[in-house]
Amino acid sequence: MKTLYIECNMGAAGDMLLASLAELTGDVKACEDRLNSLGIPDVTYCLESSIKCGIEGTHARVVALGVEEDEHMHELHHDEHVHDHREEEHHEHHEHSHDEEHHHEGELEVEHHHHHHTHMSDIEAIINGLDVSDKVKGDALSVYTLIAEAESKAHGRDISEIHFHEVGTMDAVADIVGVCVLLEEIAPDRIIVSPLATGYGQVRCAHGILPVPAPATAHIIEGIPTYSGDIEGELLTPTGAALIRHFADSFGRRPIMTISKIGYGMGKKDFEKANMLRSFLGEDGDESDLVIEMECNVDDMTGEEIGYATGVLIEEGALDVFTTSVFMKKNRPGILLTCLVRPEEKEKFARLIFENTTTIGIRYSEAARFRLSRREEEVTTRLGKARLKISEGFGVTRVKPEYDDVAELADSER
To answer: For the chain, what is the mean pLDDT?
Structure first.
């Protein structure tokens, strides 16, 4: 299985994720050219070499409307309130005097554009007008909707009242669309992300001081694993958080996988720790791996309820779910529910088991297993097309037709 693992030990921002994925394509310059051909109005991508703690990677710089601005300078304007969401005290501050002067000029340009604001409807029009696939458009709009919904909650306003500063909007759109395009090109079967470092402390904005993570970011990361870490400042931005939330299939440690490529996306500020987001691309089709075996006993659920619960667990991606008849206290007949899951998903399935059964306790243990690698092929028969499931390994090859396809072909002959 083609797996992408994203390591966010120093948080995540849209530009860092974009740069990291660009390195996975194998040709950063060609990737820059492709991104600049997307047709995002008044936006230029610049993918540049960057070194952090002696490690070379790529920094993604975006020039929007002639201004080089951080993705994090989303300025939200309500009817009577202006919130300059100048979040990035971490990834994008300029360290040297020349850069500081350039940053100051950029701020003057931001003031010049203050009267231009965009609504979600404007963003939808921009994205829908791009020469990209429907999948990229759908993903990009979903990510930006997460941001808009979070800002709506944070400021107690309806989404229709949320206005984005024009330059910051185009910068964020560039990062979001670029990431969506590159993920479509890389096409991983699954995406696993490490728990997200947010940083800690406070961040100064134009209209006051906010806690880290910023309120909008905090809304986006509800329900996913995060931690503050030991860096004072803001490591996780709304754009980075929204991209991760939309695309991540699960969160946890890097699984057993054969790595083929590694991408380094660099932030701008320097720390004692390398300010980077790292992506690993590879295959997890090893013949042995680890699983978590989760078990619980229940004696007060009907067969229909047990059937529904097992169905939910399968639909949510459990590796296997099965039941065993057991006798429990007071000689009551009961059910032993067993669920096999990936290690990084045990908390997710613990929640699902508690939500869908009457158990008050779940046992779990780590188990090593041997397994055959699996793939599918489509064949054409005299009745039509059908998929074959092929399992190989340990000198064994097994071929079995997909039941649903065989049943459909059989029905067509009746």
So the answer is: 83
String of DSSP letters for 50-94 = EEETTEEEEEEEEEETTEE--TTEEEEE-SS-EEEEE--SSSS--
Q: Please state, in angstroms and rounded to a whole number, the distance separating the CA atoms of residues 288 and 268.
A: 40
Residue with tokens 């040709």: 27
Q: Is 101 exposed, middle or buried (0-12, 13-18, 19+ CB in 10 A)?
A: exposed
Dist CA 384 CA 413 (whole Å)? 11
What are the tens digits of pLDDT across the range 372-403? Answer: 888 889 999 888 999 999 998 888 899 999 99
Question: Which pLDDT value is given to residue 1?
Answer: 76
Strands 288-298 and 258-266: unpaired
Spatial contact of 14 and 239, defined as CB atoms under 8 Å apart = yes
Dihedrals phi, psi of 207, to nearest 5 degrees: -120, 25
Cα separation values, 194 from 146, 213, 263, 336, 347, Å: 20, 17, 15, 32, 14
Distance CA 180, CA 325 (A): 47
CA distance 37 to 203: 36
DSSP 8-state assignment for residue 110: H
3-state secondary structure of 234: coil
Is the omega angle on the peptide bond into residue 213 within 30 degrees of 0, that is, cis? Answer: yes
Sort strands 196-197 and 226-227 into parallel, antiparallel or unpaired: parallel
d(CA 80, CA 67): 26
The token duo for 209 is 């001081």
> What is the pairing mode between strands 363-370 and 384-393?
unpaired
Q: Please check the confidence at residue 407 and state whether its pLDDT lies above 80.
A: yes
How confident is residue 163, by pLDDT bands cut at 50, 70 and 90?
low
Q: What pLDDT band is residue 290 in, cutting at 50, 70 and 90? A: confident
Q: What percent of the chain has pLDDT over 90?
A: 57
- pLDDT score, position 47: 95
Residue 281: which H helix or E strand, with range?
A: strand 276-283
